[in-house]
C-alpha cells in the first residue's frame, strides 16, 4: 500500500460522499464569485477554481444559514489527492461556521488526510480549501 | 546496447534515477560542464572589444560556437545564427521583431494545433495586437494555407506526440500556394534526436534551445535566412547591438549582433558548443539507432497494458517517424489521473516523467483530455532497464487503485 494512497483516500476518490450540485433556492451565485446580497436566510453559494496545467477543476456548492454550512457538494475532476481531499473536507466542514473554515490552514488538510505530502501534491490537496475560502 | 550513462555525472550522484523527461530538459554530460567551468575559472571575461588576452579568447570561443551551430543545422553562414535565451525567446524574437514589422491587419497566419505554447501564444498575441487572421491548422498542417497566408508556425517534432513532421514537404506545399510565406519552425524537440538541415528544409526561421540537446539552460538559437533577418527589427536595445548612439538617435550593428543586446550567456554558449561536439562525436546515426531500439521496446511493453491509451496513436505513424516521446493516459475511470501516475512513478520508482498538458493545451483539448497525460521521453542515456522500471511503476499504480 502506498503511504499517500491509503485506503481511506482511495475510498473518498472512488466513492465520494459529496459529489453533485445544490440548486440555488434564491440568488444564484456564479462560479469564482460570491453572490452579492448577503442575507441571513439560507442561501447557496458557489465557488470554483481551475488548475489547467494539471487538469484539476473544482466547483463547490454550499448551502449556508447564518454563517453555518448546512450542506455542501462538489463537481469537477482531478487527481485522486485533490478529489479525495475535497470530499473529506466537505465531510468535515458541514456543520461548521464558514468563518471558521476560512481560518483553516493547509496543515489541517494534511492532518485530516493523515498523510504528509510533497510540495507539488500539497497544491492538489489544498484545492478544496482554496475554493471554500472563496465562498 | 551501448550504455551512455557514465558520460553523465548526475547518474553518479543518483545511481537509481530513471530519467524519462528529456523532452522537458536533457541531462548534461561531463564534457559540457567541464568546458563551462573552464571558461569561468580560466577566461571568464566579457566578449567583444576587450583588448586583453582572456577577452579575446572568450570572444573567439563564443564566435566559434556560432560557426559550429551553423554547420550543425546546415545553415549557409554563421551570420544566420542568433543566440537567444532559448527556443521561447527565439520565437518571441521572430514574432516581435519580424512579425510586428512585416504583418499587417487582415494578413492570415497559420499555427498548428500541435504547437507547444511557445509557438502558439506569441502568434495568438501578435494576431490580437495587429488584427491578423489567426488560423489553426490540424495535424496535416497545410490545409489552412491560402495565398494570403503570410506566416506558418509549426513544430519539427511534437513535444507531446513525438511525431516527426515532414517539414520539407509541408514547406514545399505551402510555397506553391504562397511563395513568400514565412515559415517558422520550432525545432526544440528535433535537434537532439534527428539530423536537421535548415537549408534543405527551406524554412525561414528555425528555433531551438541548448538545454534540450545536452547543453546548458539559458541559451538558445534562432536561425534566420539572411533575407528574413534583414526584414527583422531588434526588439531589445542596449549595449552590443548598436553602431552609433547620439543624443537623439541610434543606429544598429550588423546582424547577428543587432539581435544580441547586452552581455550574452557566454559560458552557456560555450557549453552549447560542446553539446554539439558531444552529439557529433556519438553521431546522429548512432543516437537514432539507440533511441529507435528503445522506442520499439517501450511501445512493445505499453501495448501489453490494456488500460493505457497512447495519445494520438491512431493518427500516427510508424515508429520510424517518431522520436522517443509517448504521452499516455488511463482509460479506466477508477484509477487516478496523470498527476497520481507521475507522483507514484517518481516517489516509489525514481522514474522521472511529466504529468499534465506539457505546454500543449489546445492539442489535449482536441483529443478530449482534461486531466492531462503522463509523458515519458527518451534520451541517449536511457536503457531498457529505465523502461522496465516505468512499466513496473505503471503496474503498481494500477494495482493501488484496483486492490
From TrEMBL, chain A:
GO function terms (MF aspect) = iron ion binding; iron-sulfur cluster binding
InterPro entries named in the record: NIF_FeS_clus_asmbl_NifU_N
Q: Name one Pfam family in it.
A: NifU_N
Question: Taxonomically, which superkingdom?
Answer: Bacteria
Please report the stretch or stretches of sequence annotated as the NIF system FeS cluster assembly NifU N-terminal domain. 5-134
Q: What biological-process terms (Gene Ontology) are attached?
A: iron-sulfur cluster assembly
Q: What is this protein called?
A: NIF system FeS cluster assembly NifU N-terminal domain-containing protein
Annotated organism of origin? Candidatus Shapirobacteria bacterium CG03_land_8_20_14_0_80_35_14
Automatic annotation (TrEMBL), chain B:
Its recorded reaction(s) are:
(sulfur carrier)-H + L-cysteine = (sulfur carrier)-SH + L-alanine
Pfam families with a match to the protein in the record = Aminotran_5
> Which example biological process does GO assign this protein?
cysteine metabolic process
Superkingdom field: Bacteria
Q: InterPro entries from the entry? A: Aminotrans_V_dom, Aminotrans_V_PyrdxlP_BS, Cys_dSase_SufS, PyrdxlP-dep_Trfase, PyrdxlP-dep_Trfase_major, PyrdxlP-dep_Trfase_small
From the UniProt record, which GO molecular function terms apply? cysteine desulfurase activity; pyridoxal phosphate binding
Query: In the Enzyme Commission scheme, what number(s) does this protein have?
Result: 2.8.1.7
What does this gene product do? Answer: Catalyzes the removal of elemental sulfur and selenium atoms from L-cysteine, L-cystine, L-selenocysteine, and L-selenocystine to produce L-alanine.
Family membership: Belongs to the class-V pyridoxal-phosphate-dependent aminotransferase family. Csd subfamily.
List the protein's name: Cysteine desulfurase
Amino acid at each position: 500500500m502506498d503511504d499517500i494512497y491509503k485506503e481511506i483516500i482511495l475510498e473518498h476518490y472512488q466513492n465520494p460522499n459529496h459529489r453533485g450540485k445544490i440548486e440555488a433556492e434564491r440568488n444564484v451565485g456564479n462560479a469564482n464569485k460570491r453572490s452579492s446580497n448577503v442575507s441571513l436566510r439560507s442561501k447557496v453559494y458557489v465557488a470554483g477554481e481551475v488548475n489547467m496545467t494539471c487538469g484539476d477543476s473544482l466547483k463547490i456548492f454550499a448551502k449556508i444559514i447564518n454563517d453555518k454550512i448546512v450542506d455542501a457538494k462538489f463537481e469537477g475532476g482531478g487527481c485522486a489527492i485533490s478529489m479525495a481531499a475535497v470530499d473529506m473536507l466537505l465531510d468535515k466542514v458541514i456543520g461548521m461556521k464558514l468563518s471558521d473554515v476560512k481560518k483553516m490552514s493547509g496543515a489541517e488538510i494534511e492532518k485530516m488526510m493523515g498523510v504528509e505530502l510533497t510540495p507539488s501534491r500539497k497544491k492538489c490537496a489544498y484545492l478544496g480549501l482554496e475554493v471554500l475560502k472563496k465562498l | 546496447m551501448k550504455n551512455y550513462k557514465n558520460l553523465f555525472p548526475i547518474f553518479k550522484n543518483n545511481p537509481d534515477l530513471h530519467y524519462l523527461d528529456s523532452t522537458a530538459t536533457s541531462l548534461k554530460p561531463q564534457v559540457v560542464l567541464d568546458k563551462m567551468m573552464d571558461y569561468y575559472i580560466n577566461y571568464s571575461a566579457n566578449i567583444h572589444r576587450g583588448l586583453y588576452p582572456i577577452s579575446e579568447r572568450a570572444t573567439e570561443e563564443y564566435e566559434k560556437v556560432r560557426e559550429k551551430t551553423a554547420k550543425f543545422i546546415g545553415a549557409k553562414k554563421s551570420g544566420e545564427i542568433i543566440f537567444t535565451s532559448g527556443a521561447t525567446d527565439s520565437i518571441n524574437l521572430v514574432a516581435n521583431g519580424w512579425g510586428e514589422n512585416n504583418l499587417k491587419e487582415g494578413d492570415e497566419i497559420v499555427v498548428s494545433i500541435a504547437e507547444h505554447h511557445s509557438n502558439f501564444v506569441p502568434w495568438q498575441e501578435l494576431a490580437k495586437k495587429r488584427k491578423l487572421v489567426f488560423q489553426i491548422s490540424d495535424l496535416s498542417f497545410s490545409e489552412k494555407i491560402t495565398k494570403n497566408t503570410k506566416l506558418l508556425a509549426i513544430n519539427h517534432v511534437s513535444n507531446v506526440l513525438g511525431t516527426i513532421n515532414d517539414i520539407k514537404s509541408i514547406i514545399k506545399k505551402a510555397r506553391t500556394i504562397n511563395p513568400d510565406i514565412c515559415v517558422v519552425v520550432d525545432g526544440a524537440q528535433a535537434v537532439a534526436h534527428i539530423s536537421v538541415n535548415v537549408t534543405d528544409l527551406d524554412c525561414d526561421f528555425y528555433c531551438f534551445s541548448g538545454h534540450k540537446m545536452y547543453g546548458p539552460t539559458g541559451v538558445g538559437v534562432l536561425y534566420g535566412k539572411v533575407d528574413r533577418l534583414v526584414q527583422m527589427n531588434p526588439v531589445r536595445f542596449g549595449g552590443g547591438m548598436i553602431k552609433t548612439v547620439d543624443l537623439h538617435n541610434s543606429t544598429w550593428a550588423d546582424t547577428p549582433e543587432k539581435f544580441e543586446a547586452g552581455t550574452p550567456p557566454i559560458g552557456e554558449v560555450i557549453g552549447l558548443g560542446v553539446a554539439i561536439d558531444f552529439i557529433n562525436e556519438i553521431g546522429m546515426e548512432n543516437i537514432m539507432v539507440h533511441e529507435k531500439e528503445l522506442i520499439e521496446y517501450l511501445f512493445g511493453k505499453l501495448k501489453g497494458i490494456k488500460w493505457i491509451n497512447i495519445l494520438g496513436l491512431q493518427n500516427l505513424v510508424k515508429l520510424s517517424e517518431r522520436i522517443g516521446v509517448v504521452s499516455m493516459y488511463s482509460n479506466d475511470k477508477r484509477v487516478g489521473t496523470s498527476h497520481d501516475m507521475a507522483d507514484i512513478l517518481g516517489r516509489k520508482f525514481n522514474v522521472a516523467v511529466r504529468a499534465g498538458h506539457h505546454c500543449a493545451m489546445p492539442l489535449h483539448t482536441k483529443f478530449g483530455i482534461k486531466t492531462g497525460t503522463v509523458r515519458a521521453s527518451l534520451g541517449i542515456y536511457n536503457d531498457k532497464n529505465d523502461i522496465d522500471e516505468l512499466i513496473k511503476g505503471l503496474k503498481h499504480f494500477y494495482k493501488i487503485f484496483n486492490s
